[in-house]
TrEMBL record:
InterPro entries on file: His_Pase_superF_clade-1, His_PPase_superfam, PGM_Phosphatase
Species this chain originates from: Streptomyces vastus
Domain of life the protein comes from: Bacteria
Protein name: Histidine phosphatase family protein
SMART domains (alphabetical): PGAM
A matching Pfam family: His_Phos_1
């Protein structure tokens, strides 16, 4: 008899970031009040599920999103560095719609190859570490369900890999909004389906939803 194991990969909630910094892996960025509400909403959404393992990226915003989920199920919260945000050379800077970043000559060398990409952690490296993290969560919850809390780009990249799409893409079209769930169902050790839900969609600012038109001054830290 085969085991069916479900791994929900959650993107963290909204972050308090008044300066519009692309914070990447920087410490000290916590959920906003709205982000905390999003985390509670996800915990409510998963309250009746058969969750036996909860693990998150070590970054504060991910752990704060995972905490109410673990609490609802009486579980300790584990961390896995493989779930961390993608590395990015623009970390700590503003880089978004209308800020002139693409016109600065010092940035051009980082924008030469969108297929790798040249500005950050290679997509294939993200696939390898994220698949390792998902497999570890699957093994920890075998026959039940696990939750992994991570970040937009690594989640989208591993989903694209599993669904056999190209890894380079338009960041504005990622289907991975704040506090969303990308759900991988395993039969034994093989992924047999991928699902996507947005339990906190009504809490997400309209300009941050997938496919939304960029708004000047509001999209500096997308992809986190």
């Amino acid at each position: 008899m085969s085991d069916i194991t479900v791994v929900h990969v959650v993107r963290h909630g909204e972050v308090a970031n008044p300066d519009g910094i692309l914070y990447g892996r920087l410490p000290g960025y916590h959920l906003s009040e709205l982000g905390l509400r999003m985390a509670e909403r996800v915990a409510e959404h998963l309250a009746a599920r058969d969750i036996t393992h909860v693990v998150s990226s070590p970054l504060e915003r991910a752990r704060e999103t995972a905490a109410p989920i673990a609490e609802r199920h009486g579980l300790d919260l584990a961390t896995d560095r493989r779930l961390i945000e993608a590395g990015n050379v623009f970390q700590g800077k503003t880089f978004g719609v209308g800020d002139g970043a693409l016109r600065r000559p010092e940035n051009w060398k980082h924008l030469l190859n969108p297929f790798r990409p040249s500005w950050g952690e290679p997509y294939l490296e993200q696939v390898v570490r994220m698949m390792g993290a998902l497999d570890a969560a699957k093994d920890a919850a075998r026959g039940h369900e696990a939750v992994c809390v991570s970040h937009q780009l690594p989640i989208w990249i591993v989903r694209s890999y599993v669904e056999r799409r190209r890894l380079w893409h338009d960041p504005r079209k990622r289907q991975c909004t704040l506090a969303s769930l990308t759900t991988f169902t395993y039969q034994d050790d093989k992924i047999v389906s991928v699902g996507y839900t947005e339990p906190a969609r009504d809490l997400v600012p309209a300009h941050l939803l997938a496919g939304a038109k960029p708004v000047k001054g509001k999209d500096k830290a997308f992809g986190a």
